[in-house]
């Protein structure tokens, strides 16, 4: 079978896998990871000395340390294959299907990295911004929402966008826990047609197109969020 025939037969299934698995897994995982990242970042920058907050800080540090210090593939295998071995009276305590395990792992991994990005972005906002807002009688929650977060978002946008683009590519690891995303489908066609070069080149091209589009969106967002800075420069 010619390379062109392999492409025409494989492409529809690869596109279906992209729309059905790769993109949804990426979007859901990133949104959940971002929510977790904001919460972890706020805990870690909190000045509170209360025992509960100190405990949460320690737990947050441990979570970030674990998920930034271990390979994503290992995390996937631990959550999908390893957790069912935690048993009580012979019955598994936690048993997740592949879809749930994949999203959970990607969200936890994204949250760990993004929390450091968001924490650094918040801390980079000058203290004078806090002081000016407090002088106006604004509460801390209002200062964070209206003064600090908008500025931190502009700073955090490039690294967060890079994390999102990386996550698109990392979803290929989900094939290791039986999720039939794009890379899993390309493996099936490589075995079916005995031509891994064409099959893997095609899926690489699709990932490249996705990341290229997202890179363009990232550039537009960066320009959009920095438009006032450019005007006053």
TrEMBL record:
Which residues belong to any copy of the ABC transmembrane type-1 domain?
19-215
PROSITE patterns (alphabetical): ABC_TM1
Keyword set, alphabetical order:
Amino-acid transport, Cell membrane, Membrane, Transmembrane, Transmembrane helix, Transport
User: TM segments?
Assistant: 21-42, 62-86, 98-122, 197-221
From the Swiss-Prot or TrEMBL record, state where the protein is found: Cell membrane
Q: Identify the main location.
A: membrane
How does the UniProt record describe the way this protein sits in the membrane? Multi-pass membrane protein
What family, per the record?
Answer: Belongs to the binding-protein-dependent transport system permease family.
Q: PANTHER family, from UniProt?
A: L-CYSTINE TRANSPORT SYSTEM PERMEASE PROTEIN TCYL, MEMBRANE COMPONENT OF AMINO ACID ABC TRANSPORTER
Q: Which NCBIfam families match?
A: HEQRo_perm_3TM
Q: Would you tell me the protein name for this molecule?
A: Amino acid ABC transporter permease
Recorded source organism is Lacticaseibacillus suilingensis
Its ancestry begins with: Bacteria, Bacillati, Bacillota, Bacilli, Lactobacillales
